[in-house]
Amino acid sequence: MENKLLFQPGKIGNAHLKNRLVLPAMGSGFAEANGDAGDKIIRYYEERARGGCGLIITEICRVDDEHGVGMPNQMALTKLHHVYALENLVEAVHKHGSKVFVQLHHPGRQTKSYMMDGRDVVAPSAIPCQVTQEMPRALTTEECKALVKKFVTSAKYAQMAGADGVELHAAHGYMLNQFLSPHTNKRTDEYGGSFEKRLRFITEIILGIKSVCPGFPISVRLSADEFVEDGNHLPEVVEIAKALEKLGVDSLNISCGTYESGLTIIEPYSIPEGWKGYLAQTIKQAVSIPVIAVNNIKRPAVAEKMLEEGVCDFIASARGQLVDAEFGNKAFEGRDEDIRKCIGCLYCFKEIGALHRLKCAINPRLGRENIYQDLNPCGEGRKVVVIGGGPAGMEAAITLADRKYAVTLYEKREALGGALTMASMANHKDLIREYRDYLIRQVEKRDIEVVLNHEATLEDVQAQEPYAVFLAHGGQPMVFPIPGSEAMDTLVWDRILREGIKPEKKKILVIGGGVTGLEVAELLSEEGLGNQVKVVEMKGEVADSVYPSVKYKLVEALTKNQVDILVNKKLVAMEAGQAEIEDVETGDKTKLDCDLVVYATGVRGQTDLVDEYNKHFNRVFACGDINKAGSILEATGQAYESAMALV
């Protein structure tokens, strides 16, 4: 479609922006250990600027080294050497016609003392966050005033580095949000109590920046609703927005939620795009300054609709541009179908939460733009065979074709897709289906020979005398031998997803409480089928490999469908009409009435096949589940790395 409004120029303060597309701040872990903007983070932002983004707002930038550490390898603006490093970042973004705002941040109570070498976690009041679960020390009045100066100093450093503005992070439950909210601010001095006093801290920061950086644009990020019982809700935040406009703020960046209502900040795949548009629209109607807003945007068409409906003035899409750095250019050219869209798996946040650097399940270049700057198209038409048309096989084939190798891609089934086809059959998996279709389109657009309905043999491959072979067969579903299984009806999870099998009016045990098991259980427990479904998991919790909000939504759906989840249990025996379950901690055994057992116990690799190919070819690369069961990230990452390593 034609995205007219998205690519109209805009203005925030005196910063002229080439379009309405914004990359909002998202912690990356790509900065240097001392807080400098080094080559890794510069290349990361530069690629999004080159990709067509109008305004880049940097990740959370530390203003206080003593109590303000928000994550490892976080950007900082606390020392003069940070200015020189930031200047390099700004120049890299500017050369592509994009602008840079630096987001100034202090986590307040939403951090851990181990992040700061054991120093105190501090906050407006001594109220612990339910997520980080560490009691903060309340700031003294003098410390509040000193912290105001630190924000102002960092803003001056940003201006010195050539940035086009700053953003104050007063959302998501961080320090500035904590001062604004009655949920976290119980102070009785000049920085707490009434609405005006809760606003004093950010007011002094804004006035201080305007004093030392005249004409320098200031944006403020706000949670339009904290979604906590005694916090700020939309009516109160509208009044905050009006007050900020009177102070001379140049734009408002609207989000919602805090750590304690994190599902509203970081939406999994089951939550639709644009669901919180009403928040930004209400604030936009109350102020005259520009409003930036996040809305879980993955598709340019949704962004365009938001602008058409007056939800906001600028579209902020973080994960959309993490997954595809060319999001802006492709949308501008009307190539929406060529955009690799976020699948909402939240692997990015899972990695950040584990104190790792930012990663994406389906963009293996993310954070490695400085490593993979050049495709090195050295293939010279040499023959490469790729076996397996799932995500790993297609990623390898696409990358190899772009590097000028002559690729033949074998798939034993009637269509490409592999594990993605099965995954897309679960509920709310439209984004997985779109990712599969995106990969298929990219294969079709390249000079790749695709052979369907043919399970390639060693002899087939030998006959082609290939320069290299890529094995992406996938794994084999694991089914463990259980005494008495011959007396019970059994199915393996992949048949339910691949063939759409949906038995009715059965008592069903799903063995395995990973994501696949839960998704299968959700399908089998749908209203109208009349099944009674139980999930049996050996571990102490289900779906322990995914981000908490993804798990939350899955368990919520199963609870609604009246599915029983049995943890610390394993299947030990079967007989006609019954299954025996053993508690792994106590050894106690229980018999359950059962008509059908569904195995969802994962997959195993096929390393014997890899060993066989290594006997016959000099260059063999194994990608994805053929090595061992893993995630889409591991499959696509191994495929991309291997395809780039071939010379």
Question: What does this 3D model show about the protein?
Answer:
Helix 13 packs parallel to helix 15. The chain has three domains: 5-353, Aldolase class I (TIM Barrel), CATH 3.20.20.70; 383-475 and 605-645, NAD(P)-binding Rossmann-like Domain (Rossmann fold, 3-Layer(aba) Sandwich), CATH 3.40.50.720; 485-603, FAD/NAD(P)-binding domain, CATH 3.50.50. The protein is built from 21 helices and 28 strands. The mean pLDDT is 95. It is α/β, with parallel strands linked by helices and 647 residues long.
Task: Note the beta-strand portion.
Answer: 15-25%
* Structural domain tally: 3
Which structural class should the secondary elements be placed in? alpha/beta
Give a count of the beta strands, DSSP E runs of length 2 or more.
Answer: 28
The CATH topology of the largest domain is given as TIM Barrel
- List the uncertain runs: none
Distance between the termini: 39 Å
CATH class of the largest domain: Alpha Beta
Helix tally equals: 21
What CATH architecture of the largest domain do you see? Alpha-Beta Barrel
The average pLDDT value, as a whole number, equals 95
Largest sheet: 8 strands, parallel, barrel
What is the quaternary state of this protein? single chain
- What is the molecular shape? globular
Percent of residues in helices: 25-40%
What Rg, in angstroms, do the CA atoms define?
A: 27 Å
